[in-house]
Amino acid sequence: MTAAVKRLEQAERRRASLQTLAYLLVAGMAMLFASLTAAYLVRRHGADWERVRLSPAVWVNAGVLAAAGAALEWGKRRGAGSRRRWIGASLGLAVVFLAGQAGAWRELAAAGVSPQTHPHAAFFAVFAAVHAAHVAAGAVALACALPHPRPLALGLCAVWWHAAAAAWAWSAVLLSWF
Question: The domain that contains 173 carries what CATH number?
């Protein structure tokens, strides 16, 4: 076997291992949000449950996160120079998302709603905080990939990013309509 073939086989094994890791992390994220969903669905039948009207920023933030994912996908398909700009745009939108989440919290606090006084608000706090951690982790991974954006790294980041966007879309639907 030639050295070139061995390098290709090693690269393929590394790619497969990293892809498996990304999917396992996404599976862990899905299990976490499934557990939170189950707890929410059970808790909402409590006598002290009062639904809190969430800020429209929750839906705007979902759109911002979707736009960040679209920018990442667009960047994956571009040349190296253009790729960096799109990844930077995705990172910028992640920051906008996190700021939007903080804004949604400020709106609830201004209305006198807090996790201590409303179980529904407490669940919003948990879903939002857990999701913010997932978005921040994805942003760190993207920032690490930014200097030398390789297709494998961007593909793995995209898997995480789209899973995080789906988790927030689910959270927004759950907390707004159920």
Answer: 1.20.120.80
The 10s digit of each residue's pLDDT in 86-98 is: 889 999 999 999 9
- What is the signed CA dihedral for 14, 16, 20, 22, rounded to 10 degrees? 70
Residue type, 81: G
With respect to residue 51, please indicate whether it lies within any of the assigned structural domains.
no
Tens of pLDDT, residues 50-66? 999 998 999 999 999 99
Interatomic CA distance for residues 161 and 70, integer angstroms: 10
Q: Domain for residue 155, yes or no?
A: yes
95, 52 Cβ separation under 8 angstroms:
no
pTM: 0.88
Burial of 71 (0-12, 13-18, 19+ CB in 10 A): buried
